[in-house]
Prior knowledge:
Layout: E1 2-8, H1 21-30, H2 37-49, E2 72-73, E3 76-82, H3 86-99, E4 103-106, E5 111-113
Antiparallel strand pairs: 1-3, 1-4, 2-3, 4-5
Amino acid sequence: MSANFYCWAPTLNLDPKARDFNDRIDALYDAPPEASDRLIAFVEALLARYPDLDDGADGETVWSSGPLGSDISGDFINLGVIWSRCDEAEPFIRETAHKHGLHFYDPQSEKFYPCPAVRG
């Protein structure tokens, strides 16, 4: 079992409370744009702490799928984390997202953590 966390650039104007939120995310994966430099740097920062599954790190990582970079769609990423390590990984992912100017959303709890630099 795994949990998912969504991170995205504020320029995507995604609102987790909007009716079309999931449809807009699905559309990103229907015709995925090239990974942005910002999301690539974000994933590199995550992998510096938790190795990718592709690196033979099974059992040593929090990721439920890999390679992690393959989950990037333009300025959006859906991160799969193994359930038993969610409480450990979530704060780090959220803080790292904010350091990279990204919003963070936990669909399990429906908690949205906008990037502090763009809060109203």
